[in-house]
Design brief:
The chain has helices at about 70-75, 85-90, and strands spanning about 5, 10, 25-30, 40-45, 100-110. The chain is α+β, with helices and mostly antiparallel strands. The protein has one domain (about 25-110). It is elongated and about 70 Å long.
Length: about 110
């Protein structure tokens, strides 16, 4: 949940809206080939298997990680930002999104 902001006024009621639903699928598979010995296992691990864009944080004014009312207001007024980033780069917050798919393949040895 998060507390919404409408027309630059924060809601009196705390946590009055829900973030977008988060779906995550992880897989881990082990295989112990008999010809390698009893202590050696092969493994395959995938986090965020379907590579879904996960919104873990959101802007308070829209409830989305990739949209902001403030960005649209800046665009409409033609405001130019200074510095190295463009307006879109400034409002793209990587920490608002979950990690992309990660795949690991390996060998584990237990002793």
């Amino acid at each position: 949940p998060y507390t919404t902001v409408r027309n630059f006024i924060r809601s009196i009621e705390k946590n009055n809206a829900d973030r977008p639903m988060l779906i995550n699928t992880d897989v881990r598979v082990f295989f112990a080939p008999p010809f390698l010995g009893p202590n050696i296992e092969l493994f395959f691990q995938a986090q965020n298997l379907f590579d879904i864009k996960q919104e873990v944080n959101v802007y308070e004014d829209t409830g989305r990680a990739d949209e902001s009312v403030q960005l649209e207001l800046f665009r409409r007024t033609g405001t130019q930002v200074g510095g190295l980033n463009s307006l879109d780069e400034f409002f793209y917050r990587q920490e608002f999104f979950g990690a992309p798919r990660r795949v690991s393949i390996g060998l584990s040895y237990s002793f």
